[in-house]
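With this grant's support, we have paired protein sequences with backbone structure tokens. One protein thus recorded is set out beneath this paragraph:

_____
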Amino acid sequence: MNCAVYVRVSVDRPEETSTTTQEARCREYAEKRGWTVVAVYEDKGRSAFKREVKRPALDRLMKDVEAGVVGAVVCWRLDRWCRSLTEFGNLWDRLRGVNCEWASVTEQFDTTSAMGKAMVGVAVLFAELESGIKSERLTEWHRHREAVGSPPTIRPTFGFGPDWKPDKTTAPMLRKAATDLLDGASVRSILRSWNEAGILTTRGNKWSRLSLIKCLRSPSIAGLREIDGTLVQGRWPAVIDRDTWDRVNALLADPIRRTNGGGHMARKMLSGILHCGLCGGPMGHRGHRAGPRYVCKPNFEDETSCGSLSIDAKLADDYIKGAIIAAVGDGLPAIEVHDPGEVSRLEGELSALAADYGAGSITRPEWQAARAGLENRLNESIARASRATATIPANLATEWDRLTVEQRRSIILTVMEDVTIKPGYSKQDRIAISWRG
């Protein structure tokens, strides 16, 4: 009788019987039964327990079985074939439907008898239980490491060496990128300079906009881990301090603060804040022979942008400056719109609570119960931070020109909901401001 051999390993680990060894044992078994091995089907690096993982070799084998190419299937162990009673039942029904025999070398199951079939079912149940227990243990192990702030087990992110210590070469690059962003540089300009300099990701690839933003927003570069939506202080040094990371993260998370990069669309005071009154698209800064202007963003990424409206940049800058000073007033004491330390304090309390859970001082239900109140306060603080993140200085009229571009933008976004440039030929009348309530 022609038979097929099926072999599988989840990953290449020393403790797993290699596919080569599995094949040799299966061939020996088939020879003793007088079967002729006509094909070997191998799934390497595939899990039989995870439903989402495809096993292409098994799929090909079952198609050949149903086509009558082979009359028997031999595998090394039952858990190489499947780890789910439901899956085994489905496969067994398909084998039985074409009178194909099935054998396991290690267990030596005899599926020709009722007792033999029952024993196979029991074995599958235990295999499924074993996988479930291993999965629970692994999940708990990772959760414990997270709770105590241990370094992630994954490949260190850009800016770190193999031991999760700041890398002498890439860490300064990351710090400079963060500083440049806060000073008004664009993601695209940083992306271009890194790629032109031959700086690669940790996987040896060129940087993309998405990979750069993901890197800059990663909590790990600030020495943090995220557990159930809560940031916990880790036990490894940060590449970027927490305050800088918070500001960079807020900058990259807010669509109104995003820009399209260097060149003629480089960020200026109102880049991305002004919106076109025709299409609603953001407006960027562009040089012009008559003087710089804010123009509706061309169709680089947003196909709905019309690119039709523009306004003199100095006119718009001066108008917004005057409107803010008139609205806020001058000679007022400094207004702290948001306390930047509040979020850090609350997250510190959550981190301490998580550490208590990791050390076994409190149970998981106690941790969850105590965490609820802190998380509510933290969410309220974060919401306040997203609405207002600037400190408005006293004597604003005098101090305005001394502020950085990013400080001015923060104040504008604090007090203004939206600024729209309407079509027409007038000057200031074209600028419509929506103030935050």
Remarks:
- The radius of gyration is 31 Å.
- Residues 2-133 form a domain with the Rossmann fold fold (CATH 3.40.50.1390).
